[in-house]
Amino acid sequence: MANYNPSSLKAEEFINDEEIQETLAYAAANKDNDALIDAILEKARPKKTKTGYTCAGLNHREASVLLACENPEKIEEMYKIAQEIKLAFYGNRIVIFAPLYLSNYCINGCVYCPYHAKNKTIARKKLTQEEIRAEVLALQDMGHKRLAIETGEDPANCPIEYVLESIKTIYGVHHKNGDIRRVNVNIAATTVENYRKLKDAGIGTYILFQETYHKQSYEALHPTGPKHDYAYHTEAMDRAMEGGIDDVGLGVLFGLERYKYEFAGLLMHAEHLEAVHGVGPHTISVPRLKRADDIDPDSFDNGIDDDTFAKIVACIRLAVPYTGMIVSTRESEKVRTRLLSLGISQASGASRTSVGGYTENERPHDSEQFDVSDQRTLDEVVRWLMENNHIPSFCTACYRKGRTGDRFMSLCKSGQILNCCHPNALMTLSEYLEDYASPETKKLGYEVIQRELAKIPNERVHSIAEQNIADIRNSNRRDFNF
Ligand code: SAM
């Protein structure tokens, strides 16, 4: 493993191409090695402890063997374990969020993204603070509490000061019982100083997709602009952590490169963060390339089918059991339904991927970043989750109580989720049902809440949660979270 050093701060040493090539060869050579596969599956399985569960996770080599395996029985077993892990550490909650596009000005040349600088057909927009307020009102009126803000990269049109001012504006909007309680940020790689400013502005997770871990492909896919610099982009999470942000979100854009390469790179990145900062990624996103203004996904060679996609999600779940996993509305209801049981813990709902999209009526919008497959309303998404045995959660308590980074991870590992996250999810769901739900969703919601309250093991927590929900129903609002 020449030059492979997860603790190194150099991109090409912690995402070491030679190690990835060796991993892929090892995985291919062992894809039918049943004894090894069974041992890896056994290692991945959650084990019961006195207080909850523990899970070893898998390193990138072990997980790559599972990903290479094509035996349907073993794949079924992976799916089963993925679901067990999800239930052990996250329960059946799905945290809901929406993206908010602030600006699509961009000086980069990303060949898969319609915001690339050479695209002269797409409308360029940047929201004013007044327009941001209007978008946030629309999002609050749907019931959203958690946003991910998105921008193109353009230091002149969209400097960090604009992003900081926008975050302040978003947190400052309060309409009826609505407020945005957590703003996650997906902006281009930046400096330690700027990450510190984002931290001070009270952001939740800093999200940055690697797009591809393959250096040569990365450079070809980002031919111009600051994003061309592979090392600067790949080392961004280390700078974010140095700037004090301890929740970071990784992701690759599936479809750009060979998925087995990306999978190994993604897990090596997670291993690197754990080795250097003592805490792995807070989330991993699994976006797939979509059709967009001047982008045809069929012109890229590495598209993956739904079965492969499901296997990737399950294998990520097995490898990094304590990391949240996010699926967006790029995926259809059908695909999302399938992925939910394989370890997804966060889903977006009623998303618009255009600048100003929540206050424009008809789609498609002229500044849209990509096609959204799941176009249902938030009420429909909430009801669908409950119909599929999940609890939609609008909870942001960890962030507001300072349970970020390794403090969140230890909550997750200590098995206290059922006494903490579970009641918080039910209370925030109750707020949603009272304030925004249709009568049908509300009826189902309270049936779900009754059933799920019974699962809270600690009697005191159970009775407080029950009382709080009664208070929410009687319009007696306080800061309820555990
Ligand atoms: N500009 C920021 C950066 O440089 O990282 C990120 C914000 S961008 C609005 C969010 C993400 O959308 C990108 O990281 C990319 O992975 C994804 N994206 C771009 N074009 C896409 C497409 N055609 N289909 C699906 N996702 C796409």
Give structural notes.
The structure is a single chain. With 482 residues, the protein is of the alpha/beta class. 45% of the residues lie in helices and 10% in strands. The chain has helices at 11-14, 17-29, 34-44, 60-68, 72-89, 129-142, 160-172, 192-200, 215-221, 230-234, 236-242, 259-277, 306-319, 333-340, 378-387, 397-400, 405-413, 421-435, 439-453, 459-473, and strands at residues 47-48, 53-54, 93-103, 146-151, 174-175, 178-179, 182-186, 206-207, 248-251, 283-285, 324-327, 346-348, 391-393. The strands form three sheets. Strands 3, 4, 7, 8, 9, 10, 11, 12 and 13 form a nine-stranded parallel β-sheet that branches. A two-stranded antiparallel ribbon has the order 1-2. Helix 2 (17-29) crosses helix 4 (60-68) and helix 2 (17-29) packs across helix 12 (259-277). The radius of gyration is 22 Å and the shape is globular. It starts with 10 loop residues before the first helix and ends in a 9-residue tail after the last helix. S-adenosylmethionine binds next to loops.
